[in-house]
Amino acid sequence: MTVRLLAATGSVGLAPTDPARSFAPALSRQPHAIVADAGSADVGPGFLGSGRAYNNPEWEEAELGHLIEGASRLGVPLIVGSCGVHGADAGVEAYSAMAERAARRLGRRLRLALIFSEQPRAWLQAALARGTIESPGGLPPLTAEAVDASSRLVAAMGAEPIVAALAQGADVVLAGRACDDALFAAPCLRRGINPASSFLAGKLLENASLVASPFVIREAVLAEVDDDGVTLEPMLADQRCTRASVAAQLMYERRTPLSQPGPRGMLELGQVRIQELDARRARISGASYCPTQPTLKVEGAGIAGQRSVALVGIRDPGLIAALDTVAAEITTEVETSGAQVALHVFGRDATMGAFEPTPAPGHEVALLIETLAATQQQASSACLLARRRLFASGYPGQKATAGSVSGLGDELWEAGAAYRWTVNHIVPVDDPSAQFVTEIREVGSGA
Amino acid sequence: MKLGELAIIVRSKNAGIGHVTVDVVFDDARAYAAAKGALDAERIAKAYGVPLERITDYVEFAEGLALKVTFRRERIAGADGLGETDVYGSSQYAPMLELEIGEGDDTSHHA
């Protein structure tokens, strides 16, 4: 038995796309299911915390429309996960509205399955009361305060809720926060492929054309999945799946390429084999799957304060040389006012921060002033104070008496609420499916 | 030869909110063997100017002809709302490019 999966894009709506490039050719290969991930926690805590849209909704609607049109033409299911990037309920609802408009436009009747993954704080508090909850890295063990400080919580679903939605005859599955690989594993598991190959396919396909070479994001890749492994073929004419490109995908965004945990088990890749079959295709095999105690990864974000930003340029070698001293004085004064301040020196170490091994400034630098306070007014006042002090700063050997920084103007950027990760933890559960509510909606009309 | 010339992929990205991981991939078994022989976690920590404890994982991925090193972030991604320098962790690989690898010299750096 072989399942043909189409990974349509690595990120729905990230930028405008042209479906003629790789999606249309892929449809002619008659995939059994079309899958696309829309989410990531990499974008930072602000989108989950606020629930706001990450992409331009017009780009999302256009791309989702192409996906729905293609799936509906072939009569195969479409699975989209982590709707709206964060997978919060607002993202699922926004995608549902887009899907409904697409159904009307196409004159089709579609069965949508919306799978919601937002979680009540009370549920997480109850889980915390049962025992210690650890973070896979970055945060201390979960506290009741961290749960309370969360504006929004989502749990990442595994494959089961998606398999169940497919069993209910869903034409389009719109999942909230989901494990990327589970989106692809679900249609394989539904058709009886073993978990090792199903999750291996997910691992390989979750970023679509990133598994191929040369580097092109968001183009389609076709996979043939059977119980022994996965055969990959990029659908963009110029791309190839090579040993190196596949290896890179297995390493992507994780600490090790040799294993990948999920809600119900671990994909083990210690014996993985990557073979180049011909000029374009690669065969990946040797994965195994070990069931584990069920868990859910839960993400939460909360408000850190209000933020303001200003940018100035510095060309005076004397001020550049004295920048750390000047910055320390300004930081002290701003912090005394009750705000926090970060000064980013572009042209020296703004990209890597304390991680920069060669923090040598260029002949000019840009200083980005970032302030955080309880109110926007306080943040802006602190940011203005830092900017005015810099403009009139004194330093050894100073010749300039008309100001030593440049700017596009004297305005600030009021950046609004800043968020922080409050929860990024692995929660032991009895049933990893129980936290996800599925709602079936029949939309559109016609065939 | 420098690692940036020898490898075909050198990149970084977050691995969860608490780590940044660097991937180095080769398309040639000799290049992989040379880099594998020349590099270890200690040398990479030194190139970044960080203590060895910051490196949480160092993986030799033989089937992929690839090396992977993961650092604990000094602050989690987003940095609690102020002072983040690279929210994706995608620009933390440059010090790797300059690492000198004795190409084909399999004896000089073996422990």
Offer a few descriptive terms:
heterodimer, A: 447 residues, alpha+beta, Alpha-Beta Plaits, 10-stranded mixed sheet, 5-stranded antiparallel sheet, 13 helices, globular, B: 111 residues, 4-stranded antiparallel sheet, 4 helices, 4 strands, 24% strand, elongated, disordered C terminus
> In percent terms, what proportion of residues of chain B is strand?
15-25%
Number of helices of chain B: 4
Integer-rounded radius of gyration of chain A = 25 Å
Report the portion of residues of chain A in β strands.
25-35%
Q: What is the structural class of chain B?
A: alpha+beta
Major sheet description of chain A: 10 strands, mixed
Query: Unreliable stretches of chain A, pLDDT < 50, 5 or more residues?
Result: none
Widest sheet: strand ordering of chain A: 11-12-8-7-1-2-3-6-4-18
Count the domains of chain A. Answer: 2
Structure description:
The complex is a heterodimer of chains A (447) and B (111). Helix content of chain A is 30%, strand content 28%. Chain A has helices spanning 23-27, 45-50, 57-74, 89-106, 121-130, 144-148, 160-167, 180-190, 195-205, 243-251, 317-321, 323-336, 376-391, and strands at 3-9, 33-37, 78-81, 109-116, 152-155, 172-175, 221-226, 229-234, 259-261, 265-268, 273-276, 282-285, 288-291, 295-314, 340-346, 365-373, 413-428, 437-444. Chain B has 111 residues and is of the alpha+beta class. A four-stranded antiparallel beta sheet of chain B has the order 1-2-4-3. The longest helix of chain B has 10 residues, at 29-38. Chain B starts with a helix and ends in a 14-residue tail after the last helix. Chains A and B meet through α10, β14, β15, β16 and β17 of A and β1, β2, β3 and β4 of B.
